[in-house]
Write a structure and sequence with these properties.
Strand content: 25-35%
Structural class: mainly beta
Order of helices and strands: EHEEEEHEEEE
Radius of gyration: 16 Å
Number of strands: 9
Strand order of the largest sheet: 3-2-5-4
Shape: globular
Largest sheet: 4 strands, mixed
Helix content: 10-25%
Number of helices: 2
Distance between the termini: 47 Å
């Protein structure tokens, strides 16, 4: 009797809304030469400790999570994945502001201005 190992695809650490995917496509359409994707990370800054940062990326890092979207490749910094698992990333625009908005079940608190969070 042979045993076959089955590999199951795991869900992405961060769910991107259609609006976020469309914004990634817009960013990639105007990206500088050499850009291979857009990357989400959580650098230490702000009054609560961690912040969300979305930037262009020119090369893959070994432990980054890679998500293929219709408009381009989206990366999640390998060191940030644990802070982001189960999050939803959306792009929201109104008359006065526009930006990525995160619903992060791992965030235990945030600063008053909403720029940083704790886990």
């Amino acid at each position: 009797m042979t045993t076959e190992t089955k590999t199951r695809a795991r869900p992405a650490a961060v769910l991107l809304t259609p609006s976020a995917e469309a914004r990634i496509a817009d960013l990639m359409a105007q990206a500088p030469d050499g850009t291979i994707g857009v990357k989400l990370s959580t650098p230490r800054r702000g009054c609560s400790g961690l912040a969300y940062s979305v930037d262009y990326v020119t090369e893959e890092a070994k432990f980054d999570e890679k998500i293929e979207t219709p408009g381009g490749t989206f990366y999640i910094d390998g060191a940030s994945v644990l802070y982001l698992v189960g999050s939803t990333m959306d792009w929201v625009e109104d008359d006065f502001t526009a930006g990525f908005v995160f619903n992060n079940p791992n965030a235990k608190g945030s600063c008053g201005c909403g720029e940083s969070f704790t886990v």
